[in-house]
Amino acid sequence: MTALFALATSLLWGLADFGGGLLTRRNPALTVVVVSQSIAAVVLGAIVLAGGGWSEAGPRLWCAVAAGLVGPVAMLSFYKALALGPMGVVSPLATLSVAIPLGVGLVLGERPGPTQIAGIAVAVTGVVLAGGPRTRGVGVQRRTILLTLVAAVGFGTVFALIAEASTTVTGLFLALFVQRVTNVAAGGAALYASARRGGEVLPATGFPWASLPALAFVGLADVAANGTYAVAAQHGPVTVAAVLASLYPVVTALAARGFLSERLRPVQAAGAGLAMVGTLLLATG
């Protein structure tokens, strides 16, 4: 069950990143974040009201609040890093986020077996290669590296926090709702501050009404990924769940290949293959 839900997390996050990347080509990144997360918050709010999720309120929700504050910072740092530097460098570095939930699992006493350790090593190597790292002829600003590391730490922290935010399915919906409301509040405040400074809030054509279905998909896929990751972490080792959930760059690369006809470089194809081998080792270990 851990492997199944963690792989679902990678699929959902990979597709959400692909959709978000397309949307930010035409719209300000902060606007994409706020609108997509607002749609997700409305849907989650309806689910919580219908299912009586408020009865699960407790101290664990502070983990959801913290995840909601960290998430927008990580996402915006990641988008800015992609705008400043080559994706082939930024994407592999961002996968360092897996180190935080892995460390949490080890601190909590989890000890993967030999097969799982091999699977972790192979899968992480595959994810890095799937990003298509380039080292020749690519100049990278220190600011780009810093923003990418901030994003990696932020994503990893959200991984760890959302896994601790609830222990039941009903409580999980409430935790995800609280996280999204916090996301929207923090992102909305940042958007307002940007507008006050004269920053771009909407594209020149006005509010992107035609993009609402895509924005809804990005927001709902992202929240669903958080949910499947929480379930994966609750039903098995966090170390395994975190590594399998970190395979989302492979999904994004394959989506770009399928929908945009972007050809995978040999190193990316090799990375995707290694990621699948690592997945099999983790699932069978």
Provide a count of the helices. 12
Uncertain runs: none
- Taking the alpha carbons of the first and last residues, their distance comes to 13 Å
* Alpha-beta content class: mainly alpha
What gyration radius follows from the Cα positions, in whole Å? 18 Å
Summarize model confidence as the mean pLDDT. Answer: 80
Q: SSE string, helix = H, strand = E?
A: HHHHHHHHHHHH
Strand content: under 5%
The oligomeric state is: single chain
User: Could you give a short account of the major beta sheet?
Assistant: none
Helix content: over 70%
Number of strands: 0
What gross morphology would you assign?
globular
What does this structure look like?
The protein is mostly helical and 285 residues long. 76% of the residues lie in helices and 0% in strands. It has twelve helices and no strands. It has helices spanning 2-23, 29-51, 61-84, 87-94, 99-107, 114-130, 142-164, 169-196, 212-234, 238-245, 248-259, 266-284. The longest helix is centred in the middle third of the chain and has 28 residues, at 169-196. It is globular. The model has no long low-confidence stretch (mean pLDDT 80).
Structure characteristics:
mainly alpha; 0% strand; 285 residues; single chain
Provide the fold topology.
Elements: H1 2-23, H2 29-51, H3 61-84, H4 87-94, H5 99-107, H6 114-130, H7 142-164, H8 169-196, H9 212-234, H10 238-245, H11 248-259, H12 266-284
Give a brief rundown of this model.
The protein is mainly alpha-helical and 285 residues long. The protein has twelve helices and no strands. The protein is globular and about 55 Å long.
